[in-house]
Amino acid sequence: MRKNHYLLLLFSLFVISCSNDDDSNTPSEINNAIPLTIGNYWVYDVSVAGTTGRDSLYIADDTIINNLTYKRFKTESFPIGFYSMALNNNAIRNADGKLLLSGGIDTGIPEIPIDLTVSDFVVFDPNAATGTVLSTFNGQNQQEIEGFEISVSYSLTTEAGESYASYTTPDGQSYNNVKAVAVKLSLKVVVSIPDIPIPYTILPTQDVLISTQYYANGIGMVHTVTDMQYELADTFGIELPLPQSLEEHQEEILSVYNVE
């Protein structure tokens, strides 16, 4: 009889333990990923290609687009991190917890001609399951550069990431109720070379930029990890007016902030 009571006690402790583990991994609803009040600001420690710096991002004012009110973001100086660069001079509004961005997104990828001017591009959705595509923006641009006709096809997407009851940034700061978003830029580059009749694909379709951003409810973006990488195909000695390759790792970590 005592043995049965002992087994029942062990089973009860096991159930309670499992229940606590589940609770710790289940964040509550995130409905305020970026508090959109004029004057709110975020300062990020940025590491890019082995060098460090700081970006100061803030909400400057209201702006009206298609009769809707957005908050316009600016930086104190020219930004170096992808996240601040993408938001600088652009506008965001909150629609039932979703964050919608309008403006021209600067990726920081040099000399490859793309136009990422978006309208109500979804950059965050609190209710999206992990892996759900939030928004897609496709485009194509043709441009003559130094006698070469360059054609670039591009696709920008955002995708819902994991949710975390607690998330710790690399500097040891912990935040509760965090949800990730992945931003991906895919490129295909084709060049027409003089005296060669067939266009040549120097960059097959591939993700050249992947940025994972972590948002803490009621605070904003607390950590971003961005990788940019590509290498053009062999051009058989022909020098093109494009960087042959790019490989860059970035991290942006929230250092100081003020939100209302």
From TrEMBL:
Annotated signal sequence range: 1-21
What keywords is this UniProt entry annotated with? Signal
Claim: Signal is one of the keywords in the record: yes
Query: Looking at the record's lineage, which domain of life comes first?
Result: Bacteria
What is the name attached to this protein's record?
Lipoprotein
